[in-house]
Amino acid sequence: MELIIQTLVNGLLIGGIFIMIAVGFTLAFGVMDIIDFAVGEWVMLGAFAAYWLQTLVHVDPLLFFPVIMLTFGAAAYVFQPVLQSVINIKHRSAALMALAFTFGLSTFFRGAALTLWGFNNRNIVTFLSDQSINILGITLPALRVAATVFAVIITIGFMVFLNKTKTGVAIRAAAENKTIAGLMGIDGQKVARTVYAIYAALTSLAGVFIGSIFSVNPDMGLRYTAFAFFVVVAGGMGSFAGAIAAAILLGLIASFVSVYVGGAYIFLILFLFLYFVLLFFSKGILGKGL
Amino acid sequence: MFSRYGTLKNAMCGLGLVALLLLPFIIPTFWLRIFTGVSLWVGLALSWNMIGGYMGYISFGHGAFFGVGAYATALVMAHTPIPFGIAILISGTLTYLFARMVGYLTFRLNGTYFAIGTWAFAEMMRQVVLLLPFTGGSYGMRLPPVVNEGFFYYVMLALAVAVLIFSYFIFEKSSFGLKVKSVREEETAAQTLGIDVEKVKNQVFALSGLFPGVIGGAYAYWITYIHPDSVLGPLIADQMVVMVLLGGIGTVFGPVIGASLMYIGNRIIWVTWGDSSSYLVILGLAICFIIRFLPEGLIKLPIRESLRRIGVGARQAIPNEEVR
What we know:
The structure holds two protein chains of two kinds. Chain A is an all-alpha fold. Chain A is about 75% helix and about 5% strand. Chain A contains eleven helices and two strands. The longest helix of chain A is centred in the N-terminal third of the chain and has 31 residues, at about 1-30. Chain A is globular. Chain B is an all-alpha fold. Chain B has helices at about 5-25, 30-55, 65-80, 85-105, 110-130, 150-170, 175-185, 185-190, 195-225, 230, 235-245, 255-275, 275-295, 305-310; strands spanning about 140, 225. A two-stranded antiparallel ribbon of chain B has the order 1-2. The relative contact order of chain B is 0.17. The interface of A and B includes residues 97, 99, 111, 114 and 282 of A.
């Protein structure tokens, strides 16, 4: 019984981190119509940013997360027009072109990281590492709790931003229908840049947490690309609530499979699940996708 | 066809083929292996082009067919006395049936969903091979080594030429090719013209899976050691896509150009630095640059016009002469 509860809690806490990736990724898909193959590499780069902040500047990366988020957001804001120009290419298979472009980016990032930093695993030590909370025999690692709490705060903050501010409403309008939003005087280009910046910032923050909880290496990205795809597809593309539900589901599946079936089976089961969700519930597990 | 340009082209093709056939007697083994690799990738790129170029459905899962072919051949040859020639035919048939099944399931989807679906499927296959009891898991499988580079060169060359001729006659010169293209341009319109869209899509997908299966089998026997990352890793499908995009998607010769350039480039980097990760940097940058600045591929560079200008194949452009 204790094991089940512990597994459940672990799953929920891991799911919390995936929410951070899911929220930005879904929004970017909604506004830019792009499935970013490089999402895992943003996670990897976020984790490396944290690692170098710790190694070179000797500060606790978890305390300096706003610096990392701002850097990534700014970089993405500057880079977005390039991506947009690819999305706007007049070509028979324009969607493929954008997909392949982000795939090229991800290959580039991974290759660059491997070339610069090698294959080694690195660890990030933060003030929360090795701390844990015990409640009724259930262990809650402080770092994972912090990550989940962060994810929840950010998601709520994000929802408020989307629903209550003018920019947020513009983003939602653009996600719903770009042409009509444009007629209402919403600058689609600016919205897309903002969204891409938010997405990169959130994903890099997830990278900081993932790097602190597990470890950092240049090859970690692929795994999180798979996770992000899982979340977006299982949640129904473009659906927020679905993405959050799918992120939690993903955490639970990963946690239960590794305890009761074996770690080697996680990806088989995830891809099997992803494939059949795609085939039979392409609107996502909550049926709210596009 | 009978213009000066066409004759020149035919003559050059003939000369090129003779040169390719004589290659094993001219160049050292090291280069022969590289040309074997070029043929392998030309075959794979052309196969992907069938579904990605002519059909307009992007598959990120074609590495799975290559891997299934490789493993099928390895298993057949490890457990039975069946010779290589028959083993690759068996694995080709198996891959065809397998592709038929995958296509049947995955064609419920379209666009981006189809791309992700094929990707998920291919990753699933890698996990399956890692876990099956008889595939050696992550250690992979060994085949009896045969040291005869000339033989493998001819096998790969024959396969590549077969795929090339097949692509040309089926997709460029037959009514089936027209059907496929009409489905690509507008599925609903094609349907109203009486084309069985589902059937066409499934046939093309299965054909584009058949050849990687056979080529995968030949690869396994050539390299004699396969493991899930080498034959089922994402890099196989990714390179097929990139080679086709580089050369020119939906054309016969684009994938040939793309595959040759990329594979030779890969080997040059490998010889110079001997380090695979810098290849990824260049590969990634190449993809981004091609898509941003040359989305139609190298084949659409205005070389033909330049040739005409200097008098080769000088001919007035005739409207509708070139069916694109």
